[in-house]
Amino acid sequence: MVRILLRRRKRALSVQDVTVTDRPLVRRAVTAAALGNTMEWFDFGVYAYLAATMGKVFFPSSSPGAQVVSTFATFAAAFLVRPLGGLVFGPLGDRVGRQRVLAATMIMMAISTFAVGFLPTYATIGFTAPLLLLLCRLVQGFSTGGEYAGATTYIAEYAPDKRRGFLGSWLDFGTFVGYSLGSGLVTVLTAVLGADGLESWGWRIPFLVAGPLGLIGLYMRLKLEETPAFQRETEQAQQAAASAADQDGDRDGDGEETPVEAARQSGKGRLKEIFTRHWQAVLICMGLVLLYNVTNYMVTSYLPTFMTATLGQDDTTAQLLVLGTMIVVALTITTVGRTSDRWGRRPVFMWGSVALIAFAYPAVVLIRQNGILMPALGCLILGLLLVCFAGTAASTLPALFPTRLRYGALSIAFNISVSLFGGTTPLVASALVEATGSEMVPAYYLMAAGVIGLISAFFLHETAGKPLHGSGPMVETTEQAHRLVARSRTEAGRQARDLWIRLRHPWHRHQPKDR
Questions:
Q1: Which burial class, exposed, middle or buried, applies to 205 when counting CB atoms under 10 A from its CB (0-12, 13-18, 19+)?
Q2: Which of 131, 147, 151, 469 is the most buried (most CB within 10 A)?
Q3: HSE of 350, CA atoms in CB hemisphere, 13 A
Q4: What element of type H or E holds 441?
Q5: Per residue of the chain (515 residues), what is the pLDDT tens digit?
């Protein structure tokens, strides 16, 4: 009994346990991480808006419907190698550091996207052209396997506990800014060059723009420092290794894994630990990622093609409607992130899932209407549903895993879910619409994602305002650190008093109260 009570006693914090963040450094970290996401989604926006044009350039012998499916199949192929990229870059980031891996992923993304702008067409080299396109997409998919998980981990480990939602939302702000820039550029090129000019040579321009963007992002990431959480984890591992060396590598008597063993654990050992000790967090992560990414790719990647190829709307009108939706998401996403800091991540995800189940069908019905007003309202509804998940994902997902496994576990869980359900959304939706002839398939698809997301959010533990799993508290000022330490000491003293009472008078809590 005494031993159990002593184990449950909470140790008071010291000033050394609390990390005081450097605001300019946090700002640089958020900007550099978001810029990589901006470039990634710049390419997605370009590819989604050029789907019909790319189909004509690289798959000219197919029917219009088959061209769209073939283009989205190439798009989805990149997601098939994302788990492989996550398996490589994630555990690597847990061993050598977040900053180095994020610099490497930025280089690979920039080169693969830039190379698409120089590819010869099917008319020039025949079947080799789509194979080269596929190769570029696979390289990009492999690099992005470590991008989003690394960027969310980086921001989460730099952000103060009470502002993690707000600062994390800037990462996905970069997502929608990048998409808006890419889709906006294609819209302008379509209006200026026309369909013939775009098909002839104009489609190359957006991909060539990715080169300078990549250089800027690489420069900013090379200037970054490692996160405080990873630095502290590394120092603890080094201290454990030195202590073990002094003790000649003796094991603890109880046979449990020592800190040095944990520090030296191989990639295979880390992978085993992720799926044996943290399988619940992996499933919750995959469910929330499915919810976010099915909604995201349905709106950003499939909706422009759905409105033009399936509903027969004007190209420019459809592009402007989706572009306007992305601007609304970008303008509201940080507000949602700040709200999650105040009200919690779990309520935002749960209510967003319920709203997606309830409003996906009416939104698609509105999009199918003629004119501009009703489709614009339908797009706006989908955008407001999407921002519920986009504004909270970057602060919720990293908090599911401990520091020493965070990058690897998040990369694996995130990319498996994105590959199976997110990136395949345009392909599956377009194939189901063509197979069934039903224009309501996108609504049913979104409703199913809402159900899965609601179940995942139900089992999610609230992490808003709390330290990351395996890390100490993080605050913005020294005054906040001292207040937190004082509060911790008060709570520890109160707990010690209660423990003394329970040990000294074990019968006290069982006595009936006087009436």
A1: middle
A2: 151
A3: 12
A4: helix 441-458
A5: 445 544 445 566 666 677 788 888 888 889 888 887 888 778 877 876 787 788 788 877 655 666 666 766 776 777 788 889 888 998 888 888 888 898 888 888 888 888 988 989 888 888 888 888 888 888 888 888 888 888 999 999 889 999 999 999 999 998 888 888 888 888 888 888 887 888 888 888 988 988 888 888 888 888 888 888 888 877 777 776 666 666 655 554 444 444 444 444 556 777 888 888 999 999 999 999 999 999 998 998 788 888 888 888 887 788 789 888 988 999 999 999 999 999 999 999 999 999 999 999 999 999 999 888 999 999 999 999 999 999 999 999 999 999 889 999 999 999 999 888 887 888 889 889 988 989 999 999 999 999 999 999 999 999 998 888 877 788 887 787 777 767 767 776 666 666 666 666 665 554 554 44
Is residue 372 a contact partner of residue 423, using CB atoms and an 8 Å limit?
no
- The four Cα atoms 271, 275, 278, 279 give a dihedral, to 10 degrees, of 150
Report the C-alpha gap between 473 and 467 in whole angstroms. Answer: 5
For residue 128, count other CB atoms closer than 10 A to its CB. Answer: 12
Query: How many Å apart are CA 65 and CA 314, to the nearest integer?
Result: 17
Burial class (CB in 10 A: 0-12, 13-18, 19+), 438: exposed
The b-or-e profile of 44-78 (16+ CB within 10 A means b, else e) is bbbbbbbbbbbbbbbbeeeeeeebbbbbbbbbbbb
Interatomic CA distance for residues 493 and 499, integer angstroms = 10
Counting Cα atoms < 13 Å in the Cβ hemisphere of 149 gives 38
Radius of gyration, CA atoms only, the chain: 25
- Helix 128-144 to helix 147-158 angle (10° resolution) is 20
Q: Residue with structure tokens 């009703």?
A: 374
Q: Which helix (H) or strand (E) holds 36?
A: helix 23-49
Please list the alpha-helical segments (H only) found in 198-314: 204-222, 228-246, 259-263, 267-277, 279-297, 303-305
| CB-count burial class (<10 Å; 0-12, 13-18, 19+) for 266 | exposed
Q: Give whole-number Cα distances, 455 to 290, 297, 409, in Å.
A: 12, 21, 21
Q: What is the DSSP string of 51-94?
A: HHHHHHHH-TTS-HHHHHHHHHHHHHHHHHSHHHHHHHHHHHHH
At 201, the amino acid letter reads W
